[in-house]
């Protein structure tokens, strides 16, 4: 149970990452991914990387610079411009639905204008899911200068688009619906210089 704990990626740049194991029975037509990060990096870094054999950027949450997030589905991406962080935790949720191609992005409990992405696409189920590195091949192909350094917590993946109430609940760490990946019951493996520590503050 990772309640009130964090993954600390200690080095910059780094070859460290965390492998997450999810039981996906079928491909995804909708999903929501949420996580909380704390870093002082100004270079590009990967937060959440979900690769299939066919597509290395099947789902990717990537931060190319402090005032921008990129949200990839099936190798295509949309950009969300954000205020530069003030050296605090940032909570992001990104959701996508195949039927409309609508991509939602929430930062610290607030929605950004929705964008269109990969309408009619299907996200493959046989996936390598990693925190802290961006995959350029299935489960590997890392660029150390896209690695994450800092702290990550509250990682979730759902096979549905969350309602606005639930998006806000995720930001506030309230009760959430059952998930494919849930922080409180996460199946994970640490690779390289990454450690689990208690959160320093709420």
Automatic annotation (TrEMBL):
One of its GO terms (molecular function) is metal ion binding. Its main location: secreted. Gene3D superfamilies: 2.60.120.200. It comes from the Eukaryota. Binds 2 calcium ions per subunit. Keywords: Acute phase, Calcium, Disulfide bond, Metal-binding, Secreted, Signal. Belongs to the pentraxin family. This is Pentraxin family member. It comes from Chloropsis hardwickii.
